[in-house]
Structure prediction request, 69 residues.
Amino acid sequence: MWTCCECENEYDESTGDVDERMCNECLDGDEEDLDSYLSTIQGFINLADRSRENKINNEVIKDIFEEQR
Prediction:
């Protein structure tokens, strides 16, 4: 028997990962946290892309107005 480094519950080879020193419950929770984290990062990437596109569009509009002056 080993003690999970995350929740301190005991586990064995069938209920946890000895190399990771975690029970299966905590290992499954880590995957959910990772998915949420990656989703958040993708949201920031998408926001940055839209911001960059808007900046380019604003520069084009600004150039058009300056040419009309």
